[in-house]
Design goal:
The chain contains three helices and 15 strands. By secondary structure, it is mainly beta. The strands form three sheets. The chain has a five-stranded antiparallel β-sheet, with helices on one face. It has a five-stranded antiparallel β-sheet with strand order 4-3-7-5-6. The longest helix is centred in the last third of the chain and has 11 residues. The mean pLDDT is 95.
Amino acid sequence: VLARADQAGKPLRDLARLAAVEPFILAMNAGMYHEDFTPVGLYVEGGHEQSPLNLADAPGNFFMKPNGVFYVDEAGNAGVLETTAYAAAGIRPRLATQSGPMLVIDGQVHPRFEENGTSRHIRNGVGVDNQKRAVFAISRSPVSLGSFARLFRDELGCSNALFLDGAISALHDGRKYLVGGKYPAGPMLAVKKKAAGRAQ
């Protein structure tokens, strides 16, 4: 599930607050946000679009083209697509979050990444592997974008993967923070357990 605000529309800002209202087995921040905690790009929660696809050019990681979208469609299929490919695909998402840059595009590391650049941060991202499973990852120590991208491509088997955020990245297991938690979050992505024992 994606979440960013409580029933009154007030930003949650904290994965621990999300855990109090929406029990989950895993949650992390899920995209970049403005000062008022609204998403910078596409945000679809429960099939309802709250923020449109952002095709603009501007400074910052979000706008390091190609950027992309993580989505789960109405049939429950997860995917990661470069933004213009997503716009052309006619997908009807149950949930979607846009971020950037793409880490891996059709098996290739983002062309602007150095192999192991000097910019190092805690980073988190999402990909989809060759079995069509969504794969979430966060670093426990600062890493470069290049090494983080290779993790998804070479170790996790994701031909497409999307950077969600850096520095403020956090991971929560429903009881406590495992990584981060010092900074507020905007969009949040949570994995819940279905009654039959399968995650959703």
